[in-house]
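Dear colleagues,

As part of the handover before I leave the project, I'm documenting each prediction I ran so the next person doesn't have to rerun anything. This entry is a single chain, and its sequence is reproduced below.
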Amino acid sequence: MADKILICGVDEAGRGPWAGPVCAGAVILNPLNPIAGLNDSKKLSEKKRDKLALLIKEYALCWSIGWASPEEIDELNIRQANHLAMQRAVQGLSIAPDLALIDGNDAPPLDCRTETLIGGDGIEACISAASILAKTARDAKMVEYDLQYPDYGFAKHKGYGVKAHSDALKRIGPCPIHRMTFKPVRAAKQQLDN
């Protein structure tokens, strides 16, 4: 069994939005229970992602979600907050991995060996699974925030910088889940303050 190393896929969702947390997924898949249809979450429909997320949670050896809040993003910067979310996701696994395969080219410090893979969410099934869990968890969280802050359209755009979001920011300013260090949010706040 010594040759069987436990590989965990790690990916995040929500680096670019102006509002909401950043979310990371970590997944160790079961090689005896492969899940068909895994791919980069951005290439899948919402319905397909939701279906796959349930299968991942059921059939993976273990999985975990990690978060970094808008406050942590503002305090640390998005890169460090992203690392924090990934660290929390990996630490939350019930089985410690030997290796973490991380989507992109920037690995956080972890207690196991790490390798980065650009476009990994479309190549490695474990990273695809992590990508799907991060995206579905973050989307669900933004839908919850939409009930709390209905004037911004979070359920629709998930906090990304679309015109409707920009218009709402200019009209009513930022809410508590906005990332104040992000330029469009700062600009909207300054405009309303003046």
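The chain has a mean pLDDT of 95. Residues 90 and 115 are 14 Å apart (CA to CA).

All the best with the project,
I.
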